[in-house]
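Why show two proteins at once? Because comparison is the fastest way to build intuition. When a single record is shown, students tend to memorize it. When two are placed side by side, the eye starts asking what differs. So, the first record is below.
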Amino acid sequence: MSHSKERNEKNCLNCNARVQGRFCHICGQENLEPAESVWHMTTHFFNDITHFDGKFFSTLKYLITKPGFLSREYMAGRRVSYLNPIRMYLFTSAFFFLIFFNFLTNDSDPVKITSNHYGVLTDSIKKMDSATFSHFSREFKNFIPHEQKDAVRYFDSMDSKVGLRFTDTAYASLEDYHRVLKEGKRHHNWLEQKLITKQITLNEKYQNDSQKIWLILKDKIRHNFPQIYFISLPFFALLLKLLYVRRSHFYYTNHFIFGVHLFIFYYLGILISYSLEEFSSRINLPYLAIMNFPIIFFLVIYCYKAMRNFYQQSRIKTLLKFLILFFTFSIVLALITISAFILSFFKL
């Protein structure tokens, strides 16, 4: 409640309804004098921030310690005491991807080496075959100083990429390919033509540098993760609706809110996991990454506990539905990711 002066007039300035008390019963606006001092504006600003923070952390406490509790509270209509789940999801996901893109992933530019010597060697390895590169990378890493960690990560990741020719085609240009099709030397269906045409275009755009094309595509997919997870959320709720179709008092929106709370928790868990992995890499203590296993285990157990507490079914039924949900949603998420990959490829 604001400490500004209440108006003597009893008409709402927002909707012009008759006000009885301090708040309008139609739109909820407080019946205050519109003119306010700088002090009132400042205190109102900080009150809003602390109110948000207070709700956020109290809601976060229940989210972590009581799986499924917030969803049941929302379903029962007890909502004012907790932060709105959609608002919390938007805030948490924005925070997660801000940290993820700016601090925990730095491989969009795979080689960040200050020395010209290392830069020359990096260019040279692209011309090596797989066997030669594997031997060279093992030997070369022994001579890289500790501060050149980005180079080491690049060499570690290259073994699985050497020999990748994602965009190689047998055609020198689009004109050459269209000529081959017109002469009937090749018979490609619509999809094959689209793929080959895009491959030729990318070869021309990036001077046949398949590694550069792959890294740009991978970075584009990574930046589509927020959209992928957001799109998958309604499908997650739909799967829950199908699994609990006999529980008629659970509406689709109830399943959706449950999914929102679960996704928020998973964002936090994945953020901790990535942070731990990055921290262990930076201080050169790989064994700290082992802590990711209990985190992953806890994420799995949390989902089971949340389903059991929210839907109030037996352990056996909950476990069975949890396994079905895990399997089916993995397929849905894979299909959405593949679709995003294809769209990203054609948008390059």
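Second record. Ask yourself what differs from the first in the token line.
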Amino acid sequence: MNRLPDEARTSRLSLHLLKTSDAALMLAVLNDPGFIAKVGDRGVRSLEAARCYIEQGAVASHEHAGLGIYRLDVTVTGAAAGICGLFQRPWLPYPDVGFALLPEFRSQGYALEATQAVLVLGFGTLGLPRLGAITSAGHDRSIHVLERAGMRFEGFVKPEGEAGQLRLYIKDRP
């Protein structure tokens, strides 16, 4: 089975597979008011809960499916800016790319740069034929990033247990 590499680089970012030692970053991302409003409240409120969230999510996904989430570090400063990676949702037939940046790193092109890198890895390294992305209908910033990354709107999906519909974007392997 092919797996995402442990590390990757873009012109401005270093991507490192998320580890339990990244719990402070994950805690900050998951409790950012913008994340909670646009993505949802995951109920992670402590470093220990963030470690478990990473272990049961990102680490397990990499071990079992070759997918995973990267910590995004700004190369020039080394600052952790957020996360980006590939997820396998039980209600989607293909993996989807997701990203979240801390407020001070938004609107600088990092989300697009990371998304493009993860798409390249998904299609190239993993050989996936199709990748998706989901976002809430009113999340204009995410919609803009997905469209600039070459993803196209496919329609709406309503995952079981979710209150509303999500916008589904797809991109096929070039």
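One difference worth noting in the second protein: The helical segments are 23-30, 33-38, 47-65, 110-123, 140-148.
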